Protein: Inositol-1-monophosphatase
Organism: Pyronema omphalodes
Amino acid sequence: DDVDLAELYDFAVQLAKDAGQLLIDAAEARRQNFNNPTNLQSAEKLNSVDLVTSLDLSLEYFLQTSISTRYPHHAFLGEESYSAGESRQYLVKPESPPTWCIDPLDGTINYLHLFPMVCISISLLVRGVPVIGVINAPLLPSLFSARLGGGAWLNETTPLPLLQPPPPLPQGAPKGCIFSCEWGKDRRDIPSGNLYRKSETFLNMATELGGRGGKGGMAHGIRSLGSAALDLAYTATGAFDIWWEGGCWEWDVAAGVCILREAGGLVTNGAPPEGYAEGPDEPTVEELRLGGRRYLGIRAAGDREGETG
Ligand code: IPD
């Protein structure tokens, strides 16, 4: 398949804007009649915090039909049309055709509560690597976008990260950092397991990530926006220094990974590579592929004065 990234990118941006208008209209209808239960239907998936609303479904239908009409040979992976039971590892394989990986409404719980951190997240993966990412948060409103080699942008005109050149990570990071993390939806082993382990991990990471001279250093703050895609977008702007989530899926992160990498940040699905703050080695294609359920993102960071590398 010949992939014309510029054309695909323009299509994805317009699609995210069109879907954003549908989200705005739905939110407005909901605001005007918040208590009418027919206004928004929602259902539980795995548990009471894993929800799907009628808006998730109608947005996914809109996105899928628009894409398959324009690009009938491409594959589609969406949060609501993914069939449970498929292998959880590497949903998009190196041999897969170009695959649109989409979360029609990231921040579903936020939407239910009319907390505006909700977005449409659209990405194109080629051989499992995200090459286009568009995140539209129309209630903010903010649109984040990137394509491989084309940089990352806020509202199409402001380059990311916002501070250019980006400042170095604070001396003794995570001291002085904003650390963002998400709680996921796995509640199987409440009250003793998963969530408690997670909070412990967050506290450890916020106080001694990577063990890089962080002894005694506390993060400036810990944030959870309720949308993994928006966490990544704000790591790309430079507002968040470090982001971590365990338990998310390709559609939660695909667009944000592309945007953060194009903004000069680092995303891995493991621990940060040794020496990342001084500039990690060029990652291999294998390392760029999405897969696994844990991701760590670090914002673009410039050199400290007097340091090279
Ligand atoms: C969820 C959000 C949440 C994260 C979950 C995601 P959804 O996506 O991004 O912040 O913790 O792992 O599944 O259900 O709102 O699209």
